[in-house]
Amino acid sequence: MSMSILDVKPVFLLSDILIYILVASLVLFFYQLMRNPLSRARWRAVFQTATGMSAFVVICFYVLVALLDSIHYREPLPILADQQTVHYSQDVRSVLDLIFVGVHKRSEKTYSSPFALQLFTKENMQDENDNLYRGFPELKYAGQHLDDPTKQRQDVVTKSLIAIFMGLLVSAVIVGAHKLWRQYRKPANALPWWSAYLTITVLIVVGSWAIGLSHYYHISGTNIVGVDVFYQSIKAIRTGVLIGTLATLLTLPIAIVLGISAGYFRGWVDDAVQYIYTTLSSIPGILLIAASVLLIDVYIELHPESFSIGAVRADFKFLALCFILGMTSWTGLCRLLRAETLKVSQLDYVQAAHAFGVSNMRVIFKHILPNVTHIILIAMVLDFSVFVLAEAVLSYIGVGVDPSMASWGNMINEARSELSRDPVVWWPVLSAFVLMFILVLAANVFSDRVRDAFDPRG
Amino acid sequence: MFAYIVRRTLYAIPILIGVNILTFALFFMVNTPDQMARVQLGDKHVSEEAIEQWKIQRGYDKPLFLNSEENSQGLFTDTVFYQKSFNLFLLEFGRSDAGRMIGADIQQRMWPSLALAIPTFIIGIAVNIVFALFVVMFRATAIDTAALILCVALLSISAIFYILGGQYFIAKLWHWVPISGYLPGIEAWRFLILPVAIGVISGIGGGTRLYRTLFLEEANKDYVRTARAKGVSETSVLFKHILPNGLIPILTSVVVVIPSLFMGSLLMESFFGIPGLGSYTLDAIQSQDFAIVRSMVFLGSVLYILGLILTDISYTLVDPRVRLS
User: Fold this and answer.
1) Per-block average pLDDT, block size 10, for chain A (458 residues)?
2) How far is CA A119 from the centre of its chain?
């Protein structure tokens, strides 16, 4: 019986649903901001810089990968003769895996270096005459198409050129289409589109090269259990992006509600809020996070029946981690919002609103909130990169995401023993470093631009 | 001033009680005392008597928050929470769940922590100030832009990569210093030089950028313009006007972390095998030794609050216009 893509069973992990809701609400939030002429001008200032534009494109690219990796399904298992119902595989796959046709199935035995044709470690082998000897076994899934291993260099160059050419073609189509659309829409505006075009072209060409060659080689080698490192570090993008957005957005409601009410109502509300955030911020953050993560571990241990599928358990633990990060990191923003609200609520127009008998809720939503939005926005983009970096540290301490989940933190954690091997295994840590660095750098550059544009103090 | 300090100290008490309630709630939600006893006794087939014995020895045999069997006074005092927290306020940490004296451990381990944290802190600030001043000297030129880009790039790298990179290149490849470990006394410098260097380097990106902003803020003030208008040389403006005044916000902003230096660095100490308080805490988290973690959380909170008070005092010292009330 042939299987088609329609036979699969969709899996909706909690974090998948959340990330789609979050991205949708973020888009809506920015759309709403764009309608306000003042913030529209500020956003223009962000995108008028070439670096801001380029950083935004990079972030969008990462988010897109994360979204693709958040549509999950389980493949049906082959149907046996006397079987009535279809059973589904325990492995949860995502749409991103479709792009990497079968890379996840092409696991080697253990370490192999980038573009290698043989394993990294020697094993006992037998030659034709049944003599035992020590040698490097051939890889099962690298360079299988080669008749002659000595021609590998030539083969890599040809395949790279083809893949790069394809990438250029695709990006030319995208850039061209956008240019056409702009011509019809409006007379040329001053935004530095060339920067966006350049970034898109570079991303697509590199992506096309990497995916194209991944079908024939392990372009970043394989890790200790033989999984393709490039594939693994791309899968980690979802973890990084999700932890950044989810934890950031979880800090917002508490910080906003407590910060604004403390600054607006003062009196005992202010005292209570100040007490809560001083108490929370006086506990060393990492200890608080560690204690809460241990709590989650125990909960999972006591309720094994709810977490039968590995991916569901990892997902629950992951969401809990985001929640904990959010719950322990809102104090800074809360303090800033309280101070700003104290200032804003003394201004004449707020006093005037009071004199007219406008209700508290209306004053807060119409007059206070719009005037502290820049603080929220700046904190949002700043926190994102902080959380992405925090994930690595937490995984190292052993209170990070589930070890079964692809994450840069887990890859770095393994790097400790890999770097002390001789000869050294450097490719997993380098892959994690490059992908993480690009994301955090883009987020930091973007947050700088947002701060320049939105912070009235300049 | 004195009245202010007394009031702030008294205000710290409810905060510390809150900290204790939070840590208790978190840890006892994780582990009941029975489970803790099982973990520490290490055997799956532990007898009930042994567990009871362990709980009595460690003082975990009472109810957690409320003792309903006692009369009005013992209702709160005769509980695990009260007995364990009250001693913390007297800085008596008692025994760890594994049976060691925590106070003695802290006294022994604070020296390596301080030996690592103090040089990192002082050299780090000095290096960042020098770099920031250098960048400010070339403000609004290509050097300024390049330095800013470099700073953003440097602060986008996780601290772990700095550690892994330093350990790999300097210690393993070039064999300049030992990879990890520690020796007490004067011999310690060989083990400390690499972590201190890495600590300083990993802070350069963020520190230089922040200090540059603070210096620039100072450079745009009226008195600086006046000085220039009167014909003061650019070097003199930088070193006699901008530097001393720019140092004020820098120093008051770092005062808050000074007491916390005592706690050591979790990452550095565990990567470099330095037997300080940071690695002590990390080991305790991993072996789920509640008594140690609770003591360290308490100590950390006390030091943080101390830092806040010191910050306020430092404001009055550098700026006579500020009055504490």
Assistant:
1) 60 83 83 78 84 91 89 77 70 79 74 79 77 77 74 83 90 89 71 88 91 83 83 89 89 93 90 91 84 80 75 85 90 92 89 88 88 85 89 84 85 83 83 92 90 73
2) 31
The CB density around residue A181, as the number of other CB atoms within 10 Å, is 10
Question: Residue ranges of chain B with pLDDT lower than 70?
Answer: 30-31, 36, 39-40, 42-45, 61-78, 324-325
Task: Determine whether the interchain pair A295/B29 forms a contact, defined as Cβ–Cβ distance below 8 Å.
Answer: yes
Taking the mean position of all CA atoms in its chain, how far away is CA A221?
Answer: 22
Q: Which two tokens stand for residue B242?
A: 């901008």
Tokens standing for residue A337: 């919002």
- Enumerate chain A positions whose Cβ falls within 8 A of a Cβ in B: 275, 278-284, 286-288, 290-292, 294-295, 298, 385, 389, 392-393, 396-399, 412, 415-416, 419-420, 424, 429, 433, 436-437, 440-441, 444-445, 448
- ipTM of the complex in this document: 0.84
Looking at residue B73, its pLDDT comes to 65
Residue B179 tokens read as 């990879």
**Strand, helix or coil for residue B85:** helix
pTM, full prediction: 0.88
- DSSP state, B95? B
Reference B243, options B269, B216, B270; nearest CA is B216
Distances (CA, A) of A96 to A71, A72, A162, B273: 8, 9, 22, 40
Nearest CA in chain B to A426: B168
